[in-house]
Amino acid sequence: MRSSDHWHPAHLRALRDLTPTVREFEIRPEGGVRPWTVGSHLNVRVTIDGREDTRSYSLTGQPHDPVAREVYRIAVKRVEPGRGGSRHLWSLERGAELMVGEPANHFELPLGAPQYLLIAGGIGITPIVGMAQQLAAQGADLRLLYAARSADELAFADALGPALGARLRTFVNAQGERLDPAAHLAALHPQALLLCCGPLPLLDAVRAAWSAAGRPAANLRFETFGNTGAHASEAFWVRLPRHGLELTVPADRTLLDVLEAAGVETLHDCKRGECGLCAVDVLAVDGRIDHRDVFFSAHEKAEGRRLCACVSRVTGGGLVLDSSYRPD
User: Fold this and answer.
1) Whole-angstrom Cα distance, residue 48 to residue 52?
2) In the Cβ-directed half-sphere of 58, how many Cα atoms lie within 13 Å?
3) 108 occurs within a structural domain
4) pTM for the full predicted model
């Protein structure tokens, strides 16, 4: 039960490949582009195996540049296997029609900090690009650490290089380079802000390093893809005693998707494991919960009493869930 989105017809004005697996899309909405700020995302309707769904993609670049006044720009990484959103968008050609929501921002860039450290992993660079460009234009004290699996996957390194110069440092896993967040915190100003976007293992490492350094929790901001975990996705079963249901969650669908398809009403919003609205109570587990959210603490995940239905999964079995449903 998501709050109603305001959807607008749009068409795909242009597309171009930034890397072998990342494609940029320029989307022109009917009625014009709505105001947005760096860190914002755009909801896009996609069709997956004949059913409609929603995916969220970060807007790239600067809101005030000439192109951004006409189109929304998103960069989408082709993920296989995945949940199908990227496959749908990559199947589109120039001129294709689609439906988009209005920009929303859950990853705001606070201004006025004495220093900034930006960290991006893979396609997590998309919301970070605009932040780095804006801070550089304002003369802020910043550094950007940008990691990717291979050199040809550094999608925005060329665009960021001229603005950042030596303040941009890249890490290429295939070349044996590893981004160690802890190694970069000691020299930071005590009130520095760290903004990070990337896969869950990177976010976990950043959060652990930040906490170990004794830095203020409020000065760490992050956003995740909400689709990566400790284990490969596999099918699992879920039982809901109050509903009298036992369901199967396929490897390519989320628990939230399956619950909604079965008529089990579940509150949700971000679908990225960040807001916690879709959290459900766990009564029993057969196997292991693969928590893929950034909402629960490490202690709460270890307890395994609740999980975020939008991203978390089970390996090696299934689980029994409670719900808010009460029969009349």
Assistant:
1) 6
2) 26
3) no
4) 0.80
- Using a pLDDT cut of 70, give the percent of the chain over it: 94
Longest dimension (CA), the chain: 65
User: Are 12 and 52 within one domain?
Assistant: yes
pLDDT of residue 35: 93
DSSP 122-147: GGGHHHHHHHHHHHHHTT--EEEEEE
Q: Give every residue of the chain whose pLDDT is below 50, as ranges.
A: 1-4
Q: For the chain, how many structural domains are there in total?
A: 3
pLDDT digits (tens, 9 = 90+) for 54-65: 888 999 989 998
Would you say 104 and 127 are in contact if contact means Cβ atoms under 8 Å apart? Answer: no
- Indicate whether 203 and 148 sit together in one domain: yes
Asked, for residue 299, whether it belongs to a domain, the answer is yes
CATH code of 185's domain: 3.40.50.80
DSSP 8-state symbol, 106: S
- Closest-CA residue to 60 (of 32, 110, 26, 31): 26
Q: Which domain holds residue 190?
A: 116-224
Q: Is 3 contained in some domain?
A: no
Residue type, 125: I
